[in-house]
Write a structure and sequence with these properties.
The chain is mostly helical. The protein has one domain. 68% of the residues lie in helices and 10% in strands. It has four helices and three strands. A hairpin with a 2-residue loop joins strand 1 and strand 2. The radius of gyration is 20 Å and the shape is elongated.
Length: 165
């Protein structure tokens, strides 16, 4: 097996006359992922604007607005982190993206299926809700791919370092 690193964003493994391309354009995927996270942040800001009218009526509306704006801020911060670290092979921003998105999807499903203490049982499912969940699922999928591609890039470099000694 011959391992070639053709460019910073691609790793080619030649294995018995078959070429496998791993880590296809990591920089582009990182930029797309950051864009999806910004789009999700915007969706959460829009959702918080929808709840402003209810803020005087219910305490739950105020909590939802804080959750939505906090989530938007979190997505913005992690997207900047991803853009700043897209040249390195750190998995930390991708783990943060998976954890945050998974938490928000789980919280959404729970709020629609059981009676949560402050917000109660939610029965409304809107366009912004569905859009944000699709975006979050995509964020999780791309982040998992990015983590896997980092691991595939690091393993051959470790093996080559050991063999040089």
């Amino acid at each position: 097996m011959i391992v070639k690193k053709s460019e910073p964003s691609a790793l080619i493994i030649i294995k018995k006359k078959h070429i496998v391309l791993i880590a296809v354009n990591r920089k582009l995927l990182a930029t797309i992922l950051a864009g999806l996270m910004v789009a999700t942040a915007i969706a959460y800001i829009v959702a918080s604007l929808d709840d402003i009218a209810e803020i005087g009526e219910e305490m739950a509306a105020a909590l939802e607005i804080m959750l939505f704006l906090g989530s938007a801020g979190g997505y913005a911060i992690v997207s900047v982190w991803i853009l700043k670290s897209k040249k390195s092979y750190s998995i930390k921003p991708y783990v943060a993206a998976i954890a945050g998105s998974s938490f928000l999807i789980t919280l959404y499903v729970l709020s629609r299926s059981i009676n949560l203490p402050v917000v109660g049982l939610q029965d409304d499912i809107g366009t912004v809700d569905i859009t944000s969940k699709v975006l979050q699922g995509t964020i999780i999928a791309i982040s998992i791919y990015m983590i896997q591609s980092v691991r595939k890039v690091k393993v051959p470099s470790v093996i080559s370092d050991i063999s040089r000694r």
